[in-house]
Amino acid sequence: MIKRKVFISHYKGDRIEVDNFIKRFGHLFIPKVLGANDNDEFINSKDTDYVMRRIRQNYLDDSTVTIVLLGSCTHSRRYVDWEIKSSLRYDAYTLPNGLIGIVLPSQNNRCHLPVRFDDNWDQQHRNCYARFCSYPSLDQQLVEWIEDAYTSRTSRKHLINNSRLMFGYNAKCSIHGDTH
């Protein structure tokens, strides 16, 4: 089995579940995570270009798949939007990251998708770049999703829609009604 480098995008409010996901499944891939553990760096800046550059350089440049772990307010977080945007970027010299959304267990298989993710997903998984999945119950399930996302970098990259303007601030959380 080839272990892919996987960037984990998440909302810091879901940190316990994110840590549990990495503990449970981290042996299947090489996790690249911003701010999940106490030792991780936090990029504390209001300069969007700087933050995007640091995320790309330190976390995305050598990863090939991005998993967005979806909690109650993940859809409203600007960093998640920026990470998805960076994951979908490509040019003549670089490929995009494959993109998977996985619902965290606390959400009972229901969540609001980040709008940029939703722009790249279709419920029937037809003519779309991203894949949206329930929390995996088996290691093999997750391995298959990661491999599908990895191959999508060439086979489905023409379906990427990354034209939406980036979030300037956190949006209102549809569940809790806040922007914190």
Give me the secondary-structure topology.
Blueprint: E1 5-9, H1 15-25, E2 30-33, H2 48-60, E3 65-70, H3 78-88, E4 98-103, H4 115-118, E5 131-133, H5 139-155
Parallel strand pairs: 1-2, 1-3, 3-4, 4-5
Helix pairs in contact: 2-3
Tally of individual domains: 1
| Spatial gap, N to C terminus | 40 Å
Helix content: 25-40%
Q: Compute the gyration radius: what is it?
A: 15 Å
Instruction: Give the CA-based shape.
Output: globular
- Sequence of strands across the biggest β-sheet: 2-1-3-4-5
Number of strands: 5
- In CATH terms, the superfamily is Toll/interleukin-1 receptor homology (TIR) domain
Mean pLDDT value: 89
Major β-sheet, in short?
5 strands, parallel
What is the CATH architecture annotation?
3-Layer(aba) Sandwich
What is the top-level CATH class? Answer: Alpha Beta
CATH level 3 topology = Rossmann fold
Strand proportion: 5-15%
Structural class: alpha/beta
Order of helices and strands, N to C? EHEHEHEHEH
